[in-house]
Amino acid sequence: MPILKLHLRRALQDIRSNRTLSLVTTSTFALSILIVSAALLFFVNMGDLIDGWRQGIRIMTYLQDGLTATDRSHLRARMENLYGVQRAAFIPKDQALSRLENQMGRQASILENLDRNPLPDAFEIQMIAAHQSWEKVEELAGTLEKLEGVSEVEYGQRWIKRIINVFNLFQLTGTIMGALFFMAAIFIVGNTVRLVLYSRREEVEIMRLVGATERFILAPFYFQSLIQAALGGVAGLVILYVMYRLIQSRIATDMAASVLQLRFLSPATMLGIVVCGMLVGWLGCHLSVKQYVRI
Amino acid sequence: MSVEEGNAALIRLFHVHRHFHATRALTDVTLDIYRNEFLFVTGASGAGKTTLLKLLYRGEVASQGQILVDGMNLARIPRRQIHLLRRKFGIIFQDYKLIPTRTVYDNVALVLEAAGRKPSYIRKKVNSVLRTVGMENRHNALPPSLSGGEQQRVAVARAVVGDPTIVLADEPTGSLDTESAGLIMNFLKTFHTRGATVVVATHDRELIRSIPGRIIYLQEGRLTGAPTV
Ligand SMILES: Nc1ncnc2c1ncn2[C@@H]1O[C@H](COP(=O)(O)OP(=O)(O)OP(=O)(O)O)[C@@H](O)[C@H]1O
Ligand SMILES: [Mg+2]
User: Fold this and answer.
1) CB distance from A208 to chain B under 8 Å?
2) Within an 8 Å CB–CB cutoff, is residue A66 touching chain B?
3) CATH 3.30.70.3040: which residues of chain A?
4) What interface predicted TM-score (ipTM) does this complex get?
């Protein structure tokens, strides 16, 4: 395709002879892509974290005192028959107490003065993964509470619900911000192309006079925008990756490393981001070119 | 006067007017230009020579009247097809109109690139045309670094590189010394003998005398039958 090569060469020539302008455009792209993909990275990891918490959701059903072993095994059978329950593990009150002692660490000495274990026996209910939506947990807890022999039901991580709500709000603002940045990017590319077109209006007119089609004249401007968008996109992602590695090495030295498994954007996502950026570049160019041709 | 009656008219102007607000650049011009004619358009400065040439390639639009070029009605050409009209012409502009940021070679090659010619053909053709105008050693020079005469020769090269049907030359010897002017005129003559129709706008009487051709006179935008001087 010699014509493509020709347009590409002219686009590169244009970029070279308008270095400052090209640099500004490319940097704007890099910044927009950086911000948008940083938000995306945050959401991906936050989503992972929340999924992890969700999988950790356990419902504790505390039992009334004085149940016999037969009562317990009946109850267990009824629980495991409930829709969404994977397993009901019996936790005798002695085990619960030693767990508590472990968790309290040095303050466990308070417990030594107890003459009687105040904790009840309990079943720990593990849910089927597919049923871990918040509504399902609440529904199941309600059912469990009504079972005979159950005194109380607790699903300690109620706060997850609140975090999920906050997260959803974040996601909404993130999406809106991303849209705004893309609009700004379109505007800025459009402006660059307009400026270049303006500085080249004499040349454009000459090309028209020697019989060039509008397509031939304008193709390099599209190529230029696409190149700048691609370069900016890649630069933005590289900066984000460097920042990511810095943060990751920080966290790795902390004990949080085991809890927080960070991951970077997948290659497909990165490709998608760059392609989106190029689309924005094309669009910005197209809008100002159309305006220019009409004049 | 009609030297080439036998030929069909390649360009026809029929009662053409062109005015810019109060300025009447051209008034009621009716004119046939024949295939393979060598035509001089002459007249004083401001008589409308440049305007007449511009109308032919639709650099200007007639305010009134009809213009036909090689069968195309210029008033009817849609915007998207103007390039087809322009490719019939090779134009040497009064102010050269070379792209200052492109090399001599690129300026000339542009015409063939725009027409979608093969790179191998472009290389061969541009090299040969630049050799003919004596610019073979200045391929990579930028137009602003050239003398007026050299720029003029590049402009001529660009005008003929696409083998146009019609060559328009607006004051092609404008500010040149006699030797450079002679070179350019020889070049136009050669091109004419190869079959092109050549239209030269000039008020250089020396030039007109140097080549046989039809002469038309413009006076304040009107065609007049006889020379005024
Ligand atoms: N774009 C324009 N706007 C207004 N007036 C114009 C325009 N173009 C030409 N004119 C006027 O039309 C008249 C003819 O101009 P034109 O350039 O055709 O003359 P010319 O014969 O080529 O002169 P010269 O020998 O100096 O090149 C002049 O009075 C000029 O001022
Ligand atoms: Mg003139």
Assistant:
1) yes
2) no
3) 58-154
4) 0.90
